[in-house]
Amino acid sequence: MSTWTERKVARALSERAPIEPPEGLLDKLKSEIPADVGSRLPATALREIRSAQVVAMPDRRMPRRQLRLLAASLILMLGGGLFALFVMRSGVSMEKVAEEDAAAPAAPSGAAAPAPRGAEPPDRAAEPVPASPPAVEEKRDQALRSLGYTSNVEEAPKEAERQLVSGDLPVLPESRRDAADEEDARSRVQAKAALPSASVAAPAPAPPPPSEPQADLAEEVEGGVEGGVAGGVVGGVPGGVVRSGARMEEAPRRPVVANEVGLDGDTASYTVARNDLREGRLPPREVIRVEEFVNHFSYGDPPPAQGDFALRAEGAPSIFTQEPRTYLLRFNLRAREGRTGTPQTIAEEAKMQVEFSPTAVARWRLIGSEGGGGTVDAGEIEAGQSVTALYEVQLTPRAAGKIASLHLRYQVPVTGELRENMQDLRVSDLVPKWENASPGFRLASLAAEFAETLRGSSHAGDLHKILRRARRVAGEMAGWPRAADVAEFVRLVETAARLQEKK
Amino acid sequence: MRDPSDGEEGRLLAALAAGDRQAAERLVERTYHGVFALLRRLCGDSDLAADLTQETYRKAWDGLSGFDSRAKFSTWLCRIAYNTFLNHLRRPRRLVPLEEKIETTVADPAPAADETFGQIVAGDRLRRAVLALPDDLRFLVTALFWGDLPVREIAEQEGVTTVAIRKRLKKALQMLARTLEEEVR
């Protein structure tokens, strides 16, 4: 039986006898202070110090131990309250369902009745067709109900739970599609119910010939609204050399969980590379992990106005290739900020997955998948956490409607309630020109391209071009939160370009 | 981004920049205890820790032009102390005369003299396990537990988010638990 646990290690590290410096050490240190020490402070640090003094407040922070005890008490109180609420609401919903069963004459058309507790999921094929296409939120609610969730999502039937935990997604019935997804739907209905949770590794066919007509796709992209995110449109394909070996996967003919996005949140690779560049050397290729470069930065994704998570999706032409109909897609998950000021886990057993529409997407690759694809373990998400995933996709010539959807499935801590959030990305959301995409999108692309270049991969770019673009983005992001990171990124690219020239 | 609640340190740095030597002395008084304690826990020897503390401050004054105001001065010092210790490890060892070594042992007022043998051994094992961690995790553990730096300041120093720091900490504790468990077996 293991004697050393993480908790025990942490306690052992914290428990220590007080240490007193030897007598005379302080005097020695004071005597060694140089006479001109004041003039050695850099001007930038001095400005920061002076501006911080204006808002300086006395340090009223509680000792750490007291903070931890307070946090533990609050969590216990909250847990107890949530448990009591859960018990109460379970009782109330049972009564409500019993009343509805007694009073309701027949199931109304166009809406699924909440599933009674413990019941099997309703028979999807028997449900009537809605009179008009439902709104996005209604679609989401209907999707949840089809999994057997009640409107309060208190308890999911076992089947739905199994589906969620294993990452499988049931196929939505015909009645739940809108007109734009009609073609998708035909292939969905033919798909099996259980879907693989691992990355698809189907052999890639030869890409479609470049001379195929793109009129329909271009028209849909051009006709969109300016902006940047789910609804934004920017124009044109950037110039550049066509790079071979895109290593994109073909999207099979059925809806598939294309990839599970790691929620690790580690950015150590960027830190290591940054330290090396600061010290005047190129980092070794093997330490570079593209996804950790991408996830180092803040892209201005706002926290959710309500609820626990905000999901965001945007796309623009790829900077890695000049192949036709090839786009970069950025998906972001942003957790709400912590409420009590202490670290909070707001989701457990969380899985973030991207699903591509096989009729819209011909090929795809996850940028930063060189570290290993396949199934990703479910993880925890903490308050304030932000995760970004970048994909490169090649659309089919007649791609229309939905390209992809981002799914987040997780368990609420304490209550164990299962939840799902999703965000679609449509062709009309794509921006025609990379240069007019949101600053956050462009920064993410450049971070990825920089990492690929440091790795010397087949997607490596031109450091001077990356630098020019990065400077422009840094200028636009001046004044944003963590703008200093972007400014530093520019310096690092500059250093890397200089070092590369010397080689 | 500087922590606006640390007014005292800011005032001292501002006074220092204006040429007030007493402000520099006051800064040393505020920070030397933590620096010494960190080095003492890292190297396990009081005299060596005192030497490294002096070396840390010398490097800090020499490198003051590189002080990044994103982090607190004490956090920056912690980093220098840590690097000083690493540099010491990499230095070729000088031979210590036997007499000097005995003197050091007798004069050493380290708390370990009062500890049980089991505690000394366990503490030593833990210290070795920490020193065997990869660099980014090792600094995190020493700064957090032995340097008493809060997560937020370490995150600012490293230029990452607090979430990333907590994830690294979890990884570090897992590695330490594994290492210590293997030693027990």
Nutshell version of this structure?
The complex is a heterodimer of chains A (503) and B (185). Chain A has 503 residues and is of the alpha+beta class.
State which percent range the strand residues of chain B make up.
under 5%
The largest inter-chain interface, given as chain pair and residues per side, is: A-B, 65 and 76 residues
Indicate the structural class of chain A.
Answer: alpha+beta
Largest sheet entry of chain A: 5 strands, antiparallel
Order of helices and strands of chain A: HHHHHHHHEEEEHHEEEEEEEEHHH
Fraction of residues of chain B in helices? Answer: over 70%
User: Spans of chain A with pLDDT under 50 lasting ≥5 residues?
Assistant: 54-59, 106-134, 147-246
Gyration radius of chain A (Cα, Å) is: 27 Å
Oligomer: heterodimer
Distance between the termini of chain B: 46 Å
Structure description:
The complex is a heterodimer of chains A (503) and B (185). Helices cover 34% and strands 16% of the residues of chain A. Chain A has 503 residues and is an alpha+beta fold. In chain A, the strands form three sheets. Chain A has a five-stranded antiparallel sheet, covered by helices on one side. In chain A, strands 4, 7, 9, 11 and 12 form a five-stranded antiparallel sheet that branches. In chain A, a hairpin with an 8-residue loop joins β5 and β6 (326-335). Chain B has helices at residues 7-17, 21-43, 46-62, 73-90, 98-107, 117-131, 135-146, 151-158, 162-184. Chain B starts with 6 loop residues before the first helix and ends with a helix. In chain B, α2 (21-43) packs across α3 (46-62). The model of chain B is unreliable at 1-5 and 94-118 (pLDDT under 50). By secondary structure, chain B is mainly alpha-helical. Chain B is built from nine helices and no strands. Chains A and B meet through α1, α2, α3, α9 and α13 of A and α1, α2, α3, α6 and α7 of B.
